[in-house]
Amino acid sequence: MKQEEEDEAHEFLGNFINVIDPSDINKNGRDKKKKTKKEKKKEKREHLKEKRKKKRPEEKKRKKEKKREALLKILNNLNEEEKIAFLKERKLSEIKKKEEKKQFLIKSYNEGYKICFNCSFQNLMEEKEISSLAKQIFLSYHYMLKKKVPVQFHFTHMNDNDDISSTLKKYSFDKWMVHIHKDDYWNIFNKDKIVVLSPDASEELEEIKKDEVYIISALVDRSVSKVLKMKKRKE
């Protein structure tokens, strides 16, 4: 069971590349072909169009109505006694799922693999970049819940009303089971157990350990060089 958890945690960290938006990573000029202004504008328009489409309230209503219709379809094929039994079983199933989720979150909060977001770069980001970062963090938390990987989330150099935490509130951040620290990570964790993750690292992460803390820079900024991040790691 322990080996299975370690494999899942390793896969979780490995899949961070699927969470982070590739457009937020500084490619240092490695693009094969630069896009023209016209192509960039068209791509931006399509992106905004798709974004607005997904956020339309009508879409949410349709999904809700679809679920309702599916439920009614099932109920229409049942007699009164069967309907009562079905709805009772459905309610019990929902309660069970909520309890399982609660217990999983408690276990993750207390015993999970430690991942720490270093939020000390807030002053280097604009509003748009912080919004992108908040979404990436939300997707990380959602990925943990979806894959049932016990991860203990930590946020250092964070206050209740700073830009990152305020932006995360639209994702119900105040309801997450995470550890929030005002101090920096090097003053909180054992320095011998700190592992800083970076796309610029010269070594690959091959093993995940429960007693180690994996640091991720909470930073989205194409203009920030890897020299700055390396300096932070040395500190």
Automatic annotation (TrEMBL):
Residue stretches making up the SAM-dependent MTase TRM10-type domain: 101-235
GO CC entries: nucleus
Biased composition regions of type Basic residues, renumbered to the chain: 30-66
Organism superkingdom: Eukaryota
Disordered: annotated segments: 20-66
Reactions catalysed, as given in the entry: guanosine(9) in tRNA + S-adenosyl-L-methionine = N(1)-methylguanosine(9) in tRNA + S-adenosyl-L-homocysteine + H(+)
EC numbers for this chain: 2.1.1.221
GO molecular function, one term: tRNA binding
Keywords tagged on the record: Methyltransferase, S-adenosyl-L-methionine, Transferase
GO biological process, one term: tRNA N1-guanine methylation
Protein name, as recorded: tRNA (guanine(9)-N(1))-methyltransferase
